[in-house]
Write a structure and sequence with these properties.
Elements (H helix, E strand, L loop, with lengths): L2 H7 L13 H11 L11 E7 L2 H14 L4 H6 L1 H9 L6 E7 L9 H21 L3 E5 L7 H7 L6 E9 L23
Antiparallel strand pairs: 1-2, 2-4, 3-4
Helix pairs in contact: 1-6, 2-6, 3-5
Length: 190
């Protein structure tokens, strides 16, 4: 599969089997991530690979965040919802948490660091697709919660960018309609 085909045919795959991808395949994904472009060669990425019971610990943090601010009575009423929150990381056999550790070099813009890590995520997603794996990049408010930062041992200046759920696809994702590129491009002749 060439790069153009991988880009055109990659889909977010939210339903994967419980079969655990071989560590060598995960290593290939992470190797692809490290080749993302990054200004000043800061390499601002951190990857945390979770499988097995480590996903349960992540689920506990998700549950804590969801329960935050609820009274004991409200927690009891939301017990099913909290249990579902705790199980979210079990939707895939491997979850990669993606962190940004921005350089302290004053020449470096934080947004460039975030963009570099996002480019690394795209490399992971494309490589996963090319290897026959299913992957989806998941985010949401709990991703950016201080408890999540604490769980991963991130510094105040660091950011968690999201989670990549990885496994073998159990269903084929359909192609979704995209806007024609002409609607999002302006050609300027200077």
């Amino acid at each position: 599969m060439d790069v153009s085909e991988a880009i055109r045919t990659r889909r977010s795959v939210g339903k994967v089997s419980e079969e655990i991808p071989d560590k060598r395949l995960i290593d290939k994904l992470l190797e692809a991530a490290r080749w993302a472009p990054n200004h000043h060669l800061t390499q601002p990425w951190l990857y945390y690979v979770l499988s097995g019971d480590a996903r349960l610990r992540l689920g506990e943090v998700l549950k804590e965040i969801k329960a935050e601010g609820l009274s004991e009575e409200e927690r009891e009423q939301a017990a099913d919802q909290l249990a579902r929150e705790k199980k979210k990381p079990l939707r895939a056999p491997v979850v990669i948490a993606v962190g940004v550790t921005p350089s302290e070099d004053p020449r470096v813009e934080e947004i460039e660091e975030i963009c570099a890590v996002a480019a690394g995520v795209q490399n992971v997603l494309l490589t996963a697709h090319s290897l026959g794996l299913g992957a989806i990049w998941r985010t949401g408010k709990p991703t950016y919660h201080p408890k999540m930062k604490e769980f991963f041992g991130l510094r105040k200046m660091d950011t968690l960018l999201g989670f990549i759920y990885i496994g073998y696809p159990s269903v084929l994702s359909r192609e979704r309609e995209r806007l024609p590129i002409e609607e999002r491009v302006e050609w300027w002749d200077c």
